[in-house]
Every structure is written in structure tokens, then in C-alpha cells.
Amino acid sequence: MSAQTTSAPTDDTGAADASRPRRTGRTGPGDVAGLGVGRAVLFVVPALALIAAFLVFPALWTLYLGVLKYDLAGSNAAAPQFVGLGNYTDALTDPRFANSVLLTLAFVGLSAVLGQNGLGFLLAATLRRAVGWVRMLVNGLVLLSWILPGTVVVFLWQALLDRNGGTLNALLDTPGAAWTLDHPLATIVVFNVWRGTAFSMLLYSAALDAVPASHLETARLYGSGPLRTFRDVVLPRIRGHILTNTLLITLWTFNDFTPYMLTGGGPDHRSETLPVYVYRMSIEGGQLGFGSAISLIMLVINLVIALFYLRLLRRRGQ
Questions:
Q1: Is 94-284 assigned to CATH 1.10.3720.10?
Q2: Per the record, where are the segments of Polar residues compositional bias (predicted)?
Q3: Is residue 80 a contact partner of residue 289, using CB atoms and an 8 Å limit?
Q4: On the chain, which terminus has fewer CB atoms closer than 10 Å, C or N?
């Protein structure tokens, strides 16, 4: 389709072929659908409007609030003051912000990159050789932790870790042990591994199914052990899936707010990850401008992480 069509084509006798639809609008070599520019724009406009309303405008509004001393109450709520980069310098020099960054990196590295990645792959590889009913049962239990609402999951974990009469203390015979107070970071790490492993398991199951059985059989006939088979046959086939999965779960965990419902960021800020820090400063502390500045810093960190993984994916594609 290479030229604008404004009239119906004619047959050998010169009569118009009325059975063919008439096309209007400009078309080009890349217009494989033959919609023309006008109709294509009409299809895209709703998506662009949603992106502008729910992504672009909030981002610009956050950027605007980040340069204001804007509080939820008081004189700065009625008349916000322009402070330029003051909120950003205050955040970068705040010890609580540095503590939140370190906690967030530890939370992401331990629970997502290592925990969900490793456990998800282990489950996917193990269940391939399991009998049908065992595979269905384990898949159902793992998926259940993923699809349950966050509030329900947190309630169940509160009952599990309760200091007085909790299930875990009853099983371990450790009455009075306060897990969320004594080990807050370990608690939210284990919680996130348990809750988010299902996605990694599903993705790796699909990736392992794509490995040709003939390649595995050839490796077996050559006497390759499990580790060598994984390194030489399986890993080259699923490397892209590993990077994609790691990118997604890293970003999801980095912005996850669920730990707040489990530990509240405490005690003494020992589980105060960046999303929790933003919430406590913006909503509980009423400093909307300061919280917006931290949110923008989080956005930049997310972009850096995404670009790092995308660069690895592009290098693999080359």
C-alpha cells in the first residue's frame, strides 16, 4: 500500500468496482493495516489520553510539588513557598533517607533478586518431574499466596507471627518471641519471597518448556551432569527470561508498600523502605513537597535500574 486512495478502482472495462471498500485518508508504505493517518490517530487517542491523565500529569505535578515547601496543614498549605532544590538537598542529607535506601536495596536484593528468582526457578525445575497431582497442588498453593489481596495476606501473617498465641511460636515452642520487632527486615524479606515467588515460577516454567527435549537428551547421552547441562544447554535458552523476570520483580519490590502493613516501618526505622519513608513523611508528617521530592528521586533510581537491565538485554540480543 503505497499511495493515497481516494476513488474506487476500475475493472478492465473501466467500470468502478463497487464491491471494494473506499479508503480515505493518507496511507504510507508502513501502513500495513490500511487505516490511514486519521483513523490510526483516532485509535491511539484514548490510550494517549489515559497515559496523559494517569502518568504524565501526576509526574509533572510531583515535579512541581518537589520544588515547593507544601504541607498538609498550616501556613504552607495555604501559601506554599518556592524552595527550588531545597527539598532534594534536605532529602539527600537526611540520615533516614540514607537508611531507607540501604534497607530498600537489601530488601530488593535478598527477597526479589535472590529469593524469588532462586525459589521460583527451583520450583519450576522440580515440578517438571513431579507427578500431575503434586504439580497441581504446589502450583495452587504458590499461586494462592500471589492472588490473595494484600490486606488478607498481612492479616494471616499477623496471626502467624503474633507474639501471644501466634502459630509460628506454637510450632517452634518459642512463646513470647516478637518476630516483627526483633527481626523486622528478615520478616519482610521472607514475607516478600513467599508472596512473590509465584510469578517467577510461572515464567521459568514457560521458559523451561521451551528448551528442546532433543538438546537435553543429547547432553545426557554425552554424559553431562545436571550442572553442566544447565550451564551449556538450559542457561543459554532462558537467559532472556532471567533478565526479564529480574527486571520486573526488582521494580515491583522496589516500589512495594506491603511491608508497611506488616511492620509499619519500625521499630526504630529498621524496616522503613523508601515507599514507607515517602508515606510517613508525606501523609503522617504532612510534608507533601518533601515527599514529592523523594518520590522523584525514587523515579530516577527506578529508571537507572530499568536502563541497566535493558542494556543487558540488548547486549544479549547482539
A1: yes
A2: 1-10
A3: yes
A4: C
